[in-house]
């Protein structure tokens, strides 16, 4: 079981998916209580590490993946992996932290402690890669929404269209667009041509 969350740095607000509440054994409540729920159910010795990881993600843009233990509302102790990825706003500063909380209690690999640690490290690496891809896609969608004056779904459809017609993965297209917007590289000509065609006359691609 895995739940998703988002922490908005500017407002201090939290959003939890329904699965996030399930992982913690809680009924769906308001977003305002999510932070208290998240920290309140962590084992005391794990809370400081989580607070420090979230703070570093906000200030230094560091992603994190931590194993911790939670005490559910029903008294059961569960082992979870908390993954977080910084999401930068248009000004380049971290605007939010998005991530997942994965309950690994029932799926810990058999074997020695070293083998379990290696298996967990590999799994966390895959989760962090997935989160990084998702963050790049969300940023690219935002850029396309600004360029083409379209909505969220249309922006994703445009990403998929570019992917299909240039024979690149959506993730790779998203990374190219975000790097170009940051001035780190130039858009490939085929990607540039498709985006230019999608831009309204009043919002040309430069």
UniProtKB/TrEMBL annotation:
Any coiled-coil regions, as ranges: none
InterPro entries for this protein: ANTAR (IPR005561), CheY-like_superfamily (IPR011006), PAS-assoc_C (IPR000700), PAS-like_dom_sf (IPR035965), PAS_fold_3 (IPR013655), Sensor_kinase/Photoreceptor (IPR052162), WH-like_DNA-bd_sf (IPR036388)
UniProt keyword Ligase, yes or no: no
EC number: 2.7.13.3
PROSITE patterns reported for this sequence: ANTAR (PS50921), PAC (PS50113)
Top-rank taxon: Bacteria
Any Pfam family: PAS_3
Domain ANTAR: from-to ranges: 117-178
Organism from which the protein derives: Blastococcus deserti
Key words of the record: Kinase, Phosphoprotein, Transferase
Keyword flag Kinase: yes
Catalytic activity: ATP + protein L-histidine = ADP + protein N-phospho-L-histidine
Domain (PAC): residue spans on this chain: 64-116
Name the record gives this protein: histidine kinase
């Amino acid at each position: 079981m895995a739940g998703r969350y988002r922490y908005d740095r500017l407002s201090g607000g939290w959003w939890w998916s329904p699965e996030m509440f399930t992982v913690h054994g809680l009924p769906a409540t308001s977003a305002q209580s999510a932070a208290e729920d998240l920290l309140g159910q962590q084992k005391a010795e794990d809370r400081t590490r989580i607070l420090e990881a979230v703070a570093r993600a906000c200030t230094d843009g560091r992603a994190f993946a931590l194993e911790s233990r939670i005490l559910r509302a029903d008294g059961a102790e569960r082992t979870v992996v908390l993954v977080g990825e910084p999401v930068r706003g248009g000004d380049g500063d971290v605007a939010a932290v998005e991530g997942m909380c994965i309950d690994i209690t029932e799926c810990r690999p058999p074997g020695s402690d070293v083998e379990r640690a290696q298996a967990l490290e590999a799994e966390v690496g895959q989760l962090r890669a997935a989160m990084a891809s998702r963050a790049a896609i969300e940023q690219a969608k935002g850029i396309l929404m600004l360029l083409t004056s379209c909505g969220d779904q249309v922006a994703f459809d445009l990403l998929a269209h570019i992917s299909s017609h240039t024979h690149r993965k959506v993730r790779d297209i998203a990374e190219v667009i975000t790097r170009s917007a940051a001035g780190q590289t130039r858009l490939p000509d085929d990607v540039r041509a498709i985006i230019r065609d999608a831009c309204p006359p009043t919002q040309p691609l430069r």
